[in-house]
């Protein structure tokens, strides 16, 4: 791997800088018979006991009446299913009390294949389940709060995302395209983008381009990407491949009239150069999971009127949790001891409200107080709450503005 300095020299040379509903699993006939025998042996006659139902909290009422219980088929670590389900139900009740009727919002960026292929935990780092795939997309969608119009899932890896996986993200979307159709029970709430992430840029070739072109013809495909640069740890050869893949996808987005979704980390000038070379000023652009400087954000907004900037659950992290462990240490990391929270709040204050997008980037970076769990679109309102808090404006105003920005970029 090359050092960051080596990559910068290369850049300079280029001329740029689920839960269950809490209902017990019914006993099988065999288990019932065994239980009866045990009770008889203990001399206890079987008696039918009538127990008064417990008083339900507001969240438990939501849990009982809504689709939260539809997350039951999602895999959970041992002992956390009921607790997470009840907590999520309380969260839905809370946000619906905060917003006036008719409020609408969208999660503009997540990854279904990864969300549905993880073991959901009550805390700590979500575990990837090797060789197992969770298929209940419909259950996930039914669990969302009222007002969440839907989400846009990015499919950006040709290679397998985890050991033992049966499908890559590309394979997953091909297999599940019927669920995105108008005839699907959840088709009206889900859209997708197709592209190649910079971490997989080495797989961009003629066959990959043909595949992206084909999938981009689907009526529910609304963008190309995420694509771009990520200079966390890359050699000059890998950096060259990232630029080649980014340029090809930017050209394709313009040709097909699709939104361009950009992942750019530690590459402000290179990103600006590619866009200046290839992308018309009127083209819709989504700067995903933005973490660069405010000056860069404002410059990009000035150059491309239909560009919007996405923020994730990382904006909710506390100073202690947001503090980085060294240069480039993850999407929420910091290059030094300066609190990331201060920089994030500067961005949220400095970027105009009408240029913002809400996103989870699920399953990554679940917002507080769900940090360490599996992020999914049903939690994206927490990002909006943080924006409202920092800007000192009503939450409903954030929802309205970001919903409009989703229409501007993606036409939905």
TrEMBL record:
<protein>
    <submittedName>
        <fullName>Uncharacterized protein</fullName>
    </submittedName>
</protein>
<dbReference type="InterPro" id="IPR018228">
    <property type="entry name" value="DNase_TatD-rel_CS"/>
</dbReference>
<dbReference type="Pfam" id="PF01026">
    <property type="entry name" value="TatD_DNase"/>
</dbReference>
<feature type="region of interest" description="Disordered">
    <location>
        <begin position="1"/>
        <end position="50"/>
    </location>
</feature>
<dbReference type="GO" id="GO:0016788">
    <property type="term" value="F:hydrolase activity, acting on ester bonds"/>
</dbReference>
<feature type="compositionally biased region" description="Basic residues">
    <location>
        <begin position="1"/>
        <end position="12"/>
    </location>
</feature>
<dbReference type="InterPro" id="IPR001130">
    <property type="entry name" value="TatD-like"/>
</dbReference>
<dbReference type="InterPro" id="IPR032466">
    <property type="entry name" value="Metal_Hydrolase"/>
</dbReference>
<keyword id="KW-0378">Hydrolase</keyword>
């Amino acid at each position: 791997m090359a050092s960051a300095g080596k990559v910068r020299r290369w850049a300079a040379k280029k001329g740029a800088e689920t839960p269950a509903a809490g209902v017990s699993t019914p006993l099988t006939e065999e288990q019932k018979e065994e239980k009866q025998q045990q009770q008889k042996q203990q001399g206890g006659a079987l008696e039918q006991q009538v127990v008064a139902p417990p008083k339900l909290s507001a969240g438990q009422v939501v849990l009982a009446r809504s689709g939260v219980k539809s997350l039951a088929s999602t895999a959970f670590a041992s002992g956390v299913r009921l607790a997470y389900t009840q907590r999520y139900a309380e969260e839905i009740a809370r946000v619906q009390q905060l917003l006036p009727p008719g409020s609408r919002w969208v999660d503009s960026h997540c990854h279904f294949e990864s969300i549905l292929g993880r073991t959901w935990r009550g805390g700590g780092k979500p575990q990837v389940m090797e060789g197992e795939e969770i298929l209940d997309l419909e259950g996930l969608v039914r669990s969302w709060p009222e007002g969440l119009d839907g989400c846009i899932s990015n499919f950006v890896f040709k290679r397998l995302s985890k050991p033992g996986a049966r499908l890559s993200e590309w394979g997953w979307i091909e297999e599940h395209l019927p669920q995105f159709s108008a005839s699907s029970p959840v088709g009206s709430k889900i859209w997708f983008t197709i592209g190649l992430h910079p971490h997989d840029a080495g797989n961009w070739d003629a066959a990959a381009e043909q595949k992206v072109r084909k999938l981009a013809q689907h009526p529910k495909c609304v963008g190309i990407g995420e694509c771009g640069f990520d200079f966390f740890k890359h050699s000059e050869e890998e950096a060259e491949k990232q630029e080649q893949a980014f340029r090809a996808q930017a050209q394709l987005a313009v040709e097909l009239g699709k939104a361009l979704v950009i992942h750019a980390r530690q590459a402000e000038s290179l990103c600006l150069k590619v866009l200046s070379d290839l992308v018309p000023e009127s083209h819709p652009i989504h700067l995903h999971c933005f973490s660069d400087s405010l000056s860069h954000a404002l410059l990009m907004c000035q150059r491309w009127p239909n560009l919007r900037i996405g923020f994730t659950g990382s904006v909710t992290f506390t100073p202690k949790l947001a503090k980085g462990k060294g240069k480039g240490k993850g999407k929420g990391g910091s290059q030094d001891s300066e609190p990331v929270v201060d920089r994030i709040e500067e961005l949220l204050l400095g970027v105009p409200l009408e240029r913002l997008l809400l996103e989870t980037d699920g399953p990554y970076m679940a917002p507080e107080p769900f940090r360490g769990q599996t992020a999914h679109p049903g939690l994206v309102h927490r990002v909006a709450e943080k924006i409202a808090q920092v800007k000192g404006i009503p939450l409903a105003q954030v929802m309205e503005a970001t919903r409009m920005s989703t229409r501007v970029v993606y036409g939905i």
